[in-house]
TrEMBL record:
<keyword id="KW-0813">Transport</keyword>
<dbReference type="InterPro" id="IPR000778">
    <property type="entry name" value="Cyt_b245_heavy_chain"/>
</dbReference>
<dbReference type="InterPro" id="IPR013130">
    <property type="entry name" value="Fe3_Rdtase_TM_dom"/>
</dbReference>
<dbReference type="GO" id="GO:0000293">
    <property type="term" value="F:ferric-chelate reductase activity"/>
</dbReference>
<keyword id="KW-0472">Membrane</keyword>
<keyword id="KW-0406">Ion transport</keyword>
<dbReference type="GO" id="GO:0005886">
    <property type="term" value="C:plasma membrane"/>
</dbReference>
<dbReference type="InterPro" id="IPR039261">
    <property type="entry name" value="FNR_nucleotide-bd"/>
</dbReference>
<dbReference type="GO" id="GO:0006826">
    <property type="term" value="P:iron ion transport"/>
</dbReference>
<protein>
    <submittedName>
        <fullName>Ferric reductase transmembrane component 4</fullName>
    </submittedName>
</protein>
<keyword id="KW-1133">Transmembrane helix</keyword>
<feature type="transmembrane region" description="Helical">
    <location>
        <begin position="294"/>
        <end position="315"/>
    </location>
</feature>
<dbReference type="InterPro" id="IPR017927">
    <property type="entry name" value="FAD-bd_FR_type"/>
</dbReference>
<feature type="transmembrane region" description="Helical">
    <location>
        <begin position="322"/>
        <end position="342"/>
    </location>
</feature>
<feature type="transmembrane region" description="Helical">
    <location>
        <begin position="175"/>
        <end position="192"/>
    </location>
</feature>
<keyword id="KW-0325">Glycoprotein</keyword>
<keyword id="KW-0812">Transmembrane</keyword>
Length: 631
C-alpha cells in the first residue's frame, strides 16, 4: 500500500501544507474554507517537489531503497493522482536543491520554499502507515479465510455425508479441509518411510543389499510407528493441548485420531511383515520365533490390528460401552507389548523407549486432569425428572460454572451401574431456581422439602412463615434421551450421587456471537446444545426448532431458558428446510450470519450443505458451528 514507506510518509507529511497554487474551498467564513490542492498544482510546484525530493533522499537513504523504486513512486504517487505526473523526475528535482534546507515548515505556513521535514513528524506518519497497512493486511487475510471456508473448511468430501454415516455404517467421511490434513499426514508418512536409504556392500552385518535395505525399512517403520503413538493418544484425549491451541472441536480430533490410528497400524503391520521376511531370508526365523521379544512384538501387532477392527462404526453403534472397554484394554496391551518388544531386544540402548515414555505421559496427563476436574467439582446429587416420554431432565445443584455456548460435561453415576467408569458427554445448560427456604416452621412445605417439589413450585407464589425467604440455587441442567447403556437406566424421581467431569469446550462461539445475526437451528433433543447460545445476550438471535409431537413436554420445559428477546419459531411434528431458513435470513440483508445447528445427523449435514451453497454465492459471510456429538 505504502511501498516504499519512507517515500510515502514524506509525501503525506508534506501534502498537509498549502502551496502557492492552492485554493480556498467553500466555507462559511467570508467564502474561505479549507485550502484545497489539486494534483496538477503539486505537479508544477517547485517548492513542493524539492521539499519532497530532499525528504525522500534523507529518509530513504538508511533503508538502501533502489533508485528505480523511488523514481517509480515519484512518477506514480507524488501528485496523489497516478494520471498526473510531476514536471521533473526525481533525480532532476533533487539536482535543483543547491544546499541543505534548514527551515522547518509550520502548520500555518504556505510552502513556498524548500522545507526540512523533521524526523519526529516523518516518524509519526511512518508508524501510522505501517500500522494501518498491517491491519489492512490482516483484514484481507481474514477476508480470504472467510471466503475460503465454503470451499475448504465447510464442504463434504463425499456430498451429503459427514455427521450422517455412509451406507451400511461404513463410517463418517471427513470434510474437505480434514481430508487435506489427512492426505498430508499420509503423504508425509510415505515420504519418510520410503526415502533416504543407502547401501554399502560388502557389509559385515548383511550379506546382500536386499537384506540390508530391508533391515533399514524395518527399523524406519518401527520408529515411525512409535513416533505416531503419542500423537495418536493426544488426539483422543479430552484434555488435549492441541485442542486448546487450535480451537478445533473434539469431534475433529477424534476423527483425526481414527485416521492417525490407521497410519499407525499400517506402520506396525509393515514393520512386522518386513521383519518376518528379513529373518526368513536370513535363515534365523525359527531361532527368533521362540524369543520373548518376538512374542511381545506379535502381541503389539495383533492388538493393533484388533484395535482397528473393533473401531469401525458399525461395531461402535452395536455397543459403545463394549467398544470402549475393548479399546482401552487392547491399547494397554499394545503399549505393553511394544515396551517389552524393544526392552528385551535392545535393553534401552538406542532410546526407542523414549517414544513410549512420551505416549504414556500424554495418557497420564489426560487421566490426571480428568480426575482433577471431577475432584474440583466434588460429589453432587442429581435430581431426575421426566419432561416427556423418553426424555429425562437431570438437575445438579451446587455446580457453579460460567456456562457459555459450546460447553459439555461428562456425567458419572456410581450407584446406577456396576460400570462405575462409564460416562457420557452432554451439553450443559445453566440452572438457576428460586427455592423456598425457611428458618422456622412454615405453612407451606417444610424444612425437608424435596428439590423436585420446590422446583415444581418455582414459578408459583409460596406462602411461608414469618422468617421465610427465597434462596437461589444455581447448578447445571441436562436433558438426556434414554438410549442404550447408562442412559437407559435413568428413571424419573431419582436422587443419585453424581460426579461431573468438565467443563469442556472450545472458543468457536466467539466467531458466531460476533456475527450480525445468529441463526440457531435445532432438531429434537438437539435444543440442549443451543440453549446457551439463546441465553448469550446477542441482540439478533433467532431459533428455528423442529421437534416431534411426542416431545411437546420438552418444548414447554425449556421455554423459560430460551432467552429474553430471542425470536423463536417452533414446529411440532415438522422439520425446517435448512435452505429455506438460510435464504430468508440472507434476503433480510444481514452482512454476516452465524449459524449454529444441533440435532439429528441428517439435519446437521443439510444445514452444512445449505451454508456451503450460500457461502459460495458470495452475498453474505456465514460462520458455521455444528454441535453434534458424533463420537
Amino acid at each position: 500500500m505504502y511501498d516504499p514507506v519512507c517515500a510515502s510518509a514524506c509525501g503525506r507529511t508534506i501534502q498537509k501544507f498549502p502551496l502557492v497554487c492552492s485554493t480556498h474551498g467553500k466555507g462559511d467564513h467570508h467564502g474561505g474554507g479549507p485550502m484545497s490542492t489539486t494534483p496538477e498544482c503539486r505537479a508544477n510546484d517547485t517548492s513542493y517537489l524539492t521539499t519532497l525530493a530532499y525528504c525522500m533522499k534523507s529518509k530513504c537513504a538508511p533503508s538502501n531503497i533502489e533508485a528505480w523504486r523511488l523514481e517509480q513512486w515519484w512518477w506514480e504517487k507524488s501528485t496523489t493522482d497516478k494520471s498526473v505526473h510531476p514536471v521533473m523526475d526525481y533525480e532532476e528535482t533533487l539536482a535543483t536543491v543547491r544546499k541543505e534546507p534548514t527551515r522547518v515548515p509550520k502548520k500555518e505556513d504556505t510552502l513556498d520554499f524548500t522545507g526540512l521535514i523533521t524526523d519526529a513528524s516523518w516518524k509519526i506518519e511512518t508508524m501510522a502507515e505501517l500500522y494501518f497497512e498491517e491491519q489492512e493486511t490482516l483484514h484481507a487475510r481474514y477476508g480470504y479465510r472467510l471466503r475460503s471456508k465454503p470451499y475448504i473448511l465447510y464442504p463434504f468430501s463425499i456430498p451429503g455425508y459427514h455427521v450422517r454415516s455412509l451406507p451400511w455404517l461404513i463410517g463418517n467421511p471427513p470434510l474437505v479441509g480434514q481430508s487435506i490434513y489427512i492426505a498430508i499426514f499420509f503423504i508425509l508418512n510415505i515420504v519418510l518411510t520410503a526415502g533416504g536409504y543407502r547401501s554399502t556392500q560388502p557389509n559385515s552385518w548383511f550379506p546382500n543389499r536386499w537384506q540390508e535395505i530391508m533391515a533399514y525399512v524395518s527399523c524406519r517403520t518401527g520408529v515411525l510407528a512409535f513416533a505416531i503413538l503419542p500423537l495418536l493418544l493426544l488426539f483422543s484425549s479430552r484434555n488435549n493441548i492441541l485442542l486448546w491451541c487450535t480451537n478445533w472441536s473434539h469431534s475433529t480430533f477424534l476423527l483425526l485420531h481414527r485416521w492417525v490410528g490407521r497410519a499407525f497400524a499400517l506402520q506396525v503391520i509393515l514393520h512386522s511383515i518386513v521383519e518376518l521376511q528379513l529373518y526368513i531370508g536370513m535363515g534365523s526365523y525359527k531361532e527368533e520365533l521362540v524369543k520373548a521379544y518376538w512374542a511381545w512384538g506379535i502381541v503389539a501387532t495383533m492388538t493393533t490390528v484388533l484395535l482397528v477392527t473393533v473401531s469401525v462404526l458399525w461395531f461402535r453403534r452395536i455397543s459403545y460401552e463394549i467398544f470402549l472397554i475393548l479399546h482401552i484394554v487392547l491399547a494397554i496391551f499394545c503399549i505393553v507389548g511394544s515396551w517389552y518388544h524393544v526392552e528385551l531386544l535392545f535393553y534401552r540402548k538406542w532410546g526407542y523407549e523414549l517414544w513410549l515414555y512420551a505416549a504414556i505421559a500424554v495418557w497420564a496427563f489426560d487421566r490426571i486432569l480428568r480426575v482433577g476436574r471431577i475432584a474440583y467439582t466434588g460429589l453432587k446429587q442429581a435430581h431426575t425428572t421426566e419432561v416427556c416420554p423418553g426424555i429425562i431432565r437431570v438437575d445438579i445443584p451446587g455446580v457453579r460454572w460460567h456456562v457459555k455456548p459450546g460447553l459439555h460435561a461428562y456425567l458419572l453415576f456410581p450407584t446406577l451401574s456396576f460400570r462405575v467408569w462409564e460416562s457420557h458427554p452432554f451439553s450443559v445448560s445453566p440452572l438457576q431456581l428460586r427455592l423456598p427456604y425457611q428458618e422456622s416452621d412454615a405453612s407451606s412445605g417444610g424444612p425437608n422439602q424435596k428439590f423436585g417439589d420446590a422446583e415444581k413450585s418455582a414459578n408459583a407464589t409460596v406462602t411461608v412463615g414469618q422468617h421465610s425467604r427465597k434462596e437461589s440455587i444455581v447448578g447445571l441442567r441436562f436433558y438426556i434421551r434414554g438410549a442404550t447403556g447408562l442412559t437407559s437406566m435413568l428413571r424419573p424421581g431419582l436422587v443419585l450421587p453424581c460426579l461431573v467431569e468438565g467443563p469442556y469446550g472450545n472458543r468457536s462461539s466467539v466467531t458466531i456471537l460476533s456475527s450480525d445475526r445468529v441463526v440457531v437451528i435445532g432438531g429434537g433433543i438437539g435444543i440442549t446444545g443451543l440453549l446457551a447460545y439463546l441465553s448469550s445476550g446477542h441482540v439478533n438471535t433467532k431459533l428455528y426448532w423442529g421437534v416431534k409431537e411426542k416431545y411437546a413436554g420438552l418444548v414447554a420445559d425449556v421455554e423459560e431458558q430460551l432467552g429474553a428477546g430471542v425470536e423463536k419459531e417452533v414446529r411440532l411434528g415438522k422439520r425446517f428446510v435448512a435452505e429455506e431458513v438460510l435464504n430468508s435470513e440472507i434476503e433480510a440483508g444481514w452482512k454476516r450470519i452465524g449459524v449454529v445447528v444441533c440435532g439429528p445427523p441428517g439435519l446437521c449435514d443439510d444445514v452444512r450443505a445449505a451454508v456451503v451453497r450460500a457461502g459460495r454465492a458470495g452475498k453474505t459471510e456465514i460462520e458455521l458451528e455444528v454441535d453434534a456429538f458424533s463420537w
